[in-house]
Amino acid sequence: MSGAQPPRGVTVRVQEAAFDLAAEGALLTRGREDVGGLASFVGLCRADDGLSALVLEHYPGMTERAIRRIAEEAYARWPLTGCTVVHRVGRLEPGAPIVLVLTASAHRAAALEACAFLIDWLKTRAPFWKREEFAGGGERWVEAKAADDAAAARWDRQDAGGGR
Amino acid sequence: MRVLYFAWLRQKVGLGEEEVAPPPEVRDVAGLIAWLSGRSPGHAAAFAQPRQVRCAVNQEFATPDAPVARGDEVAFFPPVTGG
């Protein structure tokens, strides 16, 4: 399961439990004086169309590897001092946090851009799947969205590795 | 060869994973899909729309022309929808 050695300061976790934004942020800044900006993104479960829950599954092993690969790409593009990605799996109800991306850097632009990059690539290159459950008892698998592909593609460049 | 199925492919096949021994003429992902499709009606249904199917070989995204061999871990799944 272990691939290449990840850059220092990268934390990747896939878990059922909720995460603590403040605590995860503190881990990226505690005891350091070189961090000038900490950017965060939290994705939450929306109650679209009477949705009662999202059920998330993933490909254990490949998921962590794919996210570490994306983090390595972020480190290659921006001068980060740390980054954290926590993605939940299992049954999540509307309002529940699903994913956390944190990036730390000396300056805000690097932190903000790397954070947007990480969530955009994660959505199109990490093996997670969402199934929607509805109050009436129906269910359906979420389909990949062209808008997500477009968001990911804005970070494409010639020396970037391919995804799906 | 270990074959894994995720999301609606798992539901259609009726299995999360299986050990298979394809014949030697199965050399790539496309060949494996064709061979697996003959294993059961569920397999055939899962692979009925190949454009909706993505693949990973040994936990790396792979295209239909990617080689597969004995001992590989090959996974089939729909386009990813995390985040």
From TrEMBL, chain A:
Q: Could you say which enzyme class this protein belongs to?
A: transferase
> What family, per the record?
Belongs to the MoaE family.
User: Which SUPFAM superfamilies does the UniProt record give?
Assistant: Molybdopterin synthase subunit MoaE
Keywords on this record?
Molybdenum cofactor biosynthesis
Entry annotated with the keyword Transcription:
no
Subunit annotation: Heterotetramer of 2 MoaD subunits and 2 MoaE subunits. Also stable as homodimer. The enzyme changes between these two forms during catalysis.
Q: What's the protein called, per UniProt?
A: Molybdopterin synthase catalytic subunit
This enzyme catalyses: 2 [molybdopterin-synthase sulfur-carrier protein]-C-terminal-Gly-aminoethanethioate + cyclic pyranopterin phosphate + H2O = molybdopterin + 2 [molybdopterin-synthase sulfur-carrier protein]-C-terminal Gly-Gly + 2 H(+)
Q: Which purpose does this protein serve, as stated in its record?
A: Converts molybdopterin precursor Z into molybdopterin. This requires the incorporation of two sulfur atoms into precursor Z to generate a dithiolene group. The sulfur is provided by MoaD.
Q: Which InterPro entries match?
A: MoaE_sf (IPR036563), Mopterin_biosynth_MoaE (IPR003448)
**Metabolic or biological pathway:** Cofactor biosynthesis; molybdopterin biosynthesis
Q: What is its EC number?
A: 2.8.1.12
Does this UniProt record's set of keywords contain Glycosyltransferase? no
Family annotation (Gene3D superfamilies): Molybdopterin biosynthesis MoaE subunit
From TrEMBL, chain B:
Q: Which UniProt keywords apply?
A: Nucleotide-binding
> Which InterPro entries does the record match to this protein?
Beta-grasp_dom_sf (IPR012675), MOCS2A (IPR044672), Mopterin_synth/thiamin_S_b (IPR016155), ThiS/MoaD-like (IPR003749)
Superkingdom, taxonomy of origin: Bacteria
PANTHER family (alphabetical):
MOLYBDOPTERIN SYNTHASE SULFUR CARRIER SUBUNIT
Can you tell me which family this protein belongs to? Belongs to the MoaD family.
Q: What protein name does the entry list?
A: Molybdopterin synthase sulfur carrier subunit
* Source organism (scientific name): Paracraurococcus ruber
